[in-house]
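Supplementary Methods S3. Input chains for the assembly prediction are listed below.
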Amino acid sequence: SQQGEEDPQALSIQEGENATMNCSYKTSINNLQWYRQNSGRGLVHLILIRSNEREKHSGRLRVTLDTSKKSSSLLITASRAADTASYFCATDFQGAQKLVFGQGTRLTINP
Amino acid sequence: DSGVTQTPKHLITATGQRVTLRCSPRSGDLSVYWYQQSLDQGLQFLIQYYNGEERAKGNILERFSAQQFPDLHSELNLSSLELGDSALYFCASSVDPGTMSDTQYFGPGTRLTVL
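Predicted structure tokens for the full assembly:
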């Protein structure tokens, strides 16, 4: 399957701690995006990183991309209860005309 | 609020029936995408339309069809419904369909329950 795979499937941490989620994929990509989904709601775009970029920041979010290992990580620093959600990576595979979403990481921030 | 609207929010129907889900994209977005999210399959891309024309096809069943109208709203038609079609159906829109590098803005979804 070309689908990205997130790791871990579920993560529970204390408020204030950092959360790291990983995404691996199998074929060459043009870009990789991270989305957040609150329970039963629509997905919200967080950040896009292109295949020629290695790191990107947006507020408390830091995304890295290692194309040699075909993997990406999303770091949320100083987590808050409002960060509780599922996080998905989505890849735009070269030659494909669609975004392929992983199964997601379910993040729980405990107060 | 993403600016993408979907109706209805919830839909309960019986097997064998047909339903229509509606989506209005963000103002100015020409591209509409449909996704199905279920517990066992995750988020699956179904189909994309750009300015009224089909642009890309994903894992869409033959029982499903979609279209995009001149006012850019889109409808997803699901027929001969089966229990396994129960899922959340999302619509998303974006400005540029040329590449998937464009941010997609998701609607709140329609929860379909087939009994």
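The CA atoms of residues 21 and 74 of chain A lie 5 Å apart. The interface with chain B takes residues 3, 30-31, 33, 35, 40-45, 48, 50, 88, 92, 96-104 of chain A (CB under 8 Å).
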